[in-house]
């Protein structure tokens, strides 16, 4: 659609962010009381689940997740936290974040995940469920918040 | 089905040229207004703060709290630590993401400008260590309400 | 008083070369990690850029290693993040970090040469590159670069 009335109007494009869902179980540091422990291999701790209705096979879902983590060290060491995003039961994204300390004590850190799911639907329109979960290679990691998991439908 | 775009407002502040020292009081990094015209609108807030630590002659840990405020109310915070050896230089990247689903909590006449602030508050800065922010970006997107 | 421009997200481009870590990591030294192109046709267009990279350093002793991640517009650097990882242990250790760049670009004023605007628009290419202080710094992914055009 174009307009030509002698002004700067021009071509008007359509907005393509057509749906947005969020799971934000905690929005401030320290708000999860008591803090949630992050499981060790082979278990994972589910942090958030977001559900979004998708109606078109060509739709994409832009996923963004941010988590605050805490590690309680008894000496100079590092601990690795593996974070995953699943669509249903399918792993679609994975990242690793280390927390590091030069001595005994508490260390806090942030981690960010970003993924574009280009195949959210396999068949007819439905709700698509995404899960954010984490696993640590030492049982010294917890989260007391924040946890924010968003899903934006892009046409 | 033709769906409507739900992003209807956008505002941002970013700076890569104004480092600020963090000592013992909160420091405001960025501030902006977003015009909200519906009580059911949501605001998707995203932030990035890059910061640096120059250690003194002893090991230790710096803890910072990165915060988002809406009209003086704390609505989001995330903490990040830097654990350093003597003489170490550490560079960190903190990421923030929040969805404000009550932007007009203050009430008032719509449409209303809602002020969002990005702030950093020191939780623990041992003596002798230099802590500075290097750069930051702060983005707010107004999203219309949608059904689940 | 303020005016309300009609704002919308009109185009979305992205490059996600790795979403689940690969077994053959890529060195971060002078590397191009991702690239995406978006069409700009209005002087007021803004591009919301987000880049998220998981990376690590293979340490063989205690120390600190740094990596830089840069967003370039048609090759010109416009935003950068520098990030370190620390190994406090007196042993070999891989230490992981995640860098996330968030930046809003207003490209048209920079890219336009005289009189070449119009509804056809021009293509602007954004690239995510990296560098590091040591050859032991790698990425096995994930690597995600997203561009959202906000009009």
Explain what you see.
The complex is a heterotrimer of chains A (155), B (148) and C (151). Chain A is mainly beta. Chain A has one domain: Jelly Rolls (Sandwich), CATH 2.60.120. Chain A is built from no helices and 10 strands. In chain A, strands 1, 2, 4, 7, 9 and 10 form a 6-stranded antiparallel β-sheet that branches. In chain A, strand 5 (77-87) and strand 6 (90-101) form a beta hairpin. Chain A is elongated and about 55 Å long. Mean pLDDT of chain A is 93; it is low at 1-10. Chain B is mainly beta. Chain B has one domain (7-143): Jelly Rolls, CATH 2.60.120. Chain B contains no helices and 9 strands. In chain B, the strands form 2 sheets. In chain B, strands 1, 2, 4, 7 and 9 form a 5-stranded antiparallel β-sheet that branches. Chain B is elongated, with a radius of gyration of 18 Å. The two termini of chain B are 17 Å apart. The mean pLDDT of chain B is 94. With 151 residues, chain C is mainly β. Chain C has one domain (9-150): Jelly Rolls (Sandwich). Helix content of chain C is 3%, strand content 62%. Chain C has 1 helix and 10 strands. Chain C has one helix at residues 108-111; strands at residues 9-18, 26-27, 31-40, 46-59, 63-73, 76-87, 93-105, 122-132, 137-139, 143-150. In chain C, the strands form 2 sheets. In chain C, strands 1, 2, 4, 7, 9 and 10 form a 6-stranded antiparallel β-sheet that branches. In chain C, a hairpin with a 2-residue loop joins strand 5 and strand 6. Chain C is elongated. Chains in contact: A-B, A-C, B-C. Chains A and C meet through strand 4, strand 5, strand 6 and strand 7 of A and strand 1, strand 4, strand 6, strand 7 and strand 10 of C.
């Amino acid at each position: 659609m174009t307009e030509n009335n002698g002004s700067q109007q021009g071509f008007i494009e359509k907005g393509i962010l057509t749906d947005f869902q969020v799971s934000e179980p905690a929005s401030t540091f320290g708000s999860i009381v008591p803090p949630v422990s992050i499981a060790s291999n082979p278990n994972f701790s589910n942090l958030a689940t977001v559900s979004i209705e998708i109606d078109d096979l060509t739709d994409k879902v832009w996923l963004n997740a941010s988590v605050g983590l805490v590690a309680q060290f008894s000496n100079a060491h590092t601990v690795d936290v593996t974070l995953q995003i699943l669509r249903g039961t399918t792993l679609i994204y994975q990242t690793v974040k280390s927390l590091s300390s030069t001595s005994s004590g508490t260390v806090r850190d942030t981690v960010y995940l970003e993924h574009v799911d280009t195949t959210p639907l396999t068949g007819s329109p439905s709700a698509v469920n995404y899960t954010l979960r984490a696993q640590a290679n030492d049982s010294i990691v917890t989260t007391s918040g924040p946890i924010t998991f968003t899903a934006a439908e892009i046409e | 089905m033709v769906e409507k775009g739900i992003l209807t407002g956008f505002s941002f502040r970013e700076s890569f040229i104004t480092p600020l020292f963090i000592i013992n009081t909160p420091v405001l990094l960025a501030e902006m207004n977003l015009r909200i015209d519906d009580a059911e609108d949501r605001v998707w807030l995203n932030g990035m703060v890059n910061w640096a630590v120059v250690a003194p002659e002893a090991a230790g840990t710096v803890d910072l709290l990165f915060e988002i405020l809406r009209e003086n109310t704390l609505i989001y915070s995330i903490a990040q630590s830097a654990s350093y050896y003597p003489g170490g230089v550490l560079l960190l990247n903190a990421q923030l993401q929040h969805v404000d689903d009550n932007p007009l909590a203050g009430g008032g006449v719509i449409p209303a400008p809602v002020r969002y602030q990005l702030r950093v508050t020191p939780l623990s800065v041992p003596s002798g260590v230099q802590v500075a922010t290097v750069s930051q970006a702060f983005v707010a997107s107004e999203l219309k309400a949608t059904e689940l | 008083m303020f005016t309300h421009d009609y704002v919308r997200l009109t185009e979305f481009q992205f490059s996600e070369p790795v979403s689940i870590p690969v077994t053959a990591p890529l060195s971060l030294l002078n590397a191009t990690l991702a690239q995406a192109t978006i069409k700009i046709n209005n002087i007021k267009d803004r591009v919301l850029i987000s880049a998220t990279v998981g990376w690590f350093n293979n340490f063989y002793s205690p120390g600190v290693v740094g990596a830089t991640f840069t967003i370039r517009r048609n090759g010109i650097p416009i935003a950068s993040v520098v990030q370190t990882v620390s190994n406090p242990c007196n042993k070999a250790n891989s230490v992981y970090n995640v860098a996330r760049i968030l930046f809003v670009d207003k490209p048209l004023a920079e890219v336009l040469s005289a009189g070449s605007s119009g509804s056809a628009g021009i293509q602007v290419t954004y690239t995510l590159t990296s560098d590091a202080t040591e050859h032991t710094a790698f990425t096995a992914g994930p690597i995600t670069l997203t561009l959202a055009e906000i009009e």
